Amino acid sequence: MPVNQIVYQLRITASVLLPGAVAMPQTDGADLRVRLQEDFLSKRGVSYPPADFFYVSPNCNEQGHPTLRVGTITDGEYFVWIYGDGVRFAVDRDGREVWVDWPETSSLEDAATYLMGPVLGYVLRRRGIVSLHASSVAVGDRAILFVGEGGAGKSTTAATFACLGYAVLSDDLVPLADQTGRFFAQPAYPRVNLWPDSVRALFGSGEALPRITPTWEKRFLALDQDGYRFQATPMPLGAIYILAPRDSTTPSPSMETMIPSSALITLVANTYVNYLLDAQMRGQEFTVLSRLVAGVPVRAVKPPDDSLRLREFAESIAADAKELFSMQCAGAMPGSA
C-alpha cells in the first residue's frame, strides 16, 4: 500500500514513509513518485556506467571513486545520479518520478541523506522552483533565512532558534515560492541535521541526539518531539541573513544591510545544487533572485567564534528581524507591504 507524505510541499508517494517525512492522508494525486530499491538501469537495459556524465565531483571517497557523478540517459529523458558508496538515483526530466537503489552495504537511511537533500533539491529545480542553500525559522508571522557556505553555521543557528522556542521551517534547503509578487519560504520536514560539535555546543554531548544513519556521524534534532516546533506551512519571507565566517576577534555579532547588487551576487553563489543547472535554469534563477533582493532586506552577519554565545547570537538576530519587520510595516524600507 503506497504511503502518502509531504516534503518541501511536494506530495510524495512511496512504499514506506521516508526518514523524516510527514505522513499525510490519501490525496487525489501525487506530485512525485519515489520508487525504492527498483533498479532503473536494469529495467531500461542500460549498461554500467550508464550515462554521459556532465558533472563529476572533484572529491573522491576512500576507494578513489568520485563522491558523485550525474549524467543523462535515454536522450536526456532521465538524469542518473551515482554516489561513490553505490547509492543511485534516476530523476525524470519533469521532476515527477525518482528511482532509488542502494547496495547491501547501505540502507534506506543512507539513501535518504541524499534523497532529502540534493536529489529533491534537483527535483524542485526541474519543476521550476528556485531554492537557496539555507535554513529558515519563523520569527513572528514571517520567515527569516540563514545563508552561507558549508560550515557557516546555518543548521546550528536554526537549531539554536529551536532551543529558544522558535519554529523551524527548513534546514539546509529552502524552496522559494513567488505568490502575487511576495516571496514565501517553503517548509521542509521536521528535522535539523547537526554535526557532533554543534550537538555538543547546544546539548552538552556530541551523542545527545540520534544519528541520521548508523554509518554517518551526523545527528538530527526532531522538531516534532520534546516541545520543539516545526512550521509546516509556508510563511512570507521577511529577511535574509548572510552568515560570514566566524571570527574570534568579533566581540559581539555585527550586522549591516547589503546593497541589492552585492546581495544578488551572494545569493546566486548560494542556490541549491547550482553545480547542475543549465542555462535556462540559471536565467530563471537570476530573474527570481533579482526580484527577491529588490523586495526583501538582506543583512550580512558576522558571528562570534564562541560556541558558548550561540543563544546570544540567535537572540540578536531575532531582535534585529523584529525591528526590520516593524520598519517594513511602517513603510520605512524595501519589503514593506
Please outline the helices and strands:
Layout lengths: L2 E5 L2 E5 L7 E2 L8 E5 L3 H4 L8 E5 L11 E6 L4 E6 L4 E5 L4 E5 L6 H19 L4 E9 L2 E6 L6 H10 L3 E4 L2 E7 L2 E4 L5 E4 L1 H8 L15 E4 L6 E2 L4 E9 L10 E4 L2 H9 L10 H17 L2 E5 L7 H20 L8
Parallel strand pairs: 2-4, 4-9, 11-18, 12-17, 18-20
Antiparallel strand pairs: 1-2, 1-3, 5-6, 6-7, 7-8, 8-9, 10-11, 10-12, 10-13, 13-14, 14-18, 15-16, 19-20
Helix pairs in contact: 3-7, 5-6
What would you note in describing this structure?
By secondary structure, this protein is of the alpha+beta class. It is 26% helix and 30% strand. The chain has helices spanning 40-43, 108-126, 154-163, 196-203, 260-268, 279-295, 310-329, and strands at 3-7, 10-14, 22-23, 32-36, 52-56, 68-73, 78-83, 88-92, 97-101, 131-139, 142-147, 167-170, 173-179, 182-185, 191-194, 219-222, 229-230, 235-243, 254-257, 298-302. The strands form three sheets. A nine-stranded mixed sheet has the order 3-1-2-4-9-8-7-6-5, covered by helices on one side. Helix 3 crosses helix 7. The protein is globular, with a radius of gyration of 20 Å.
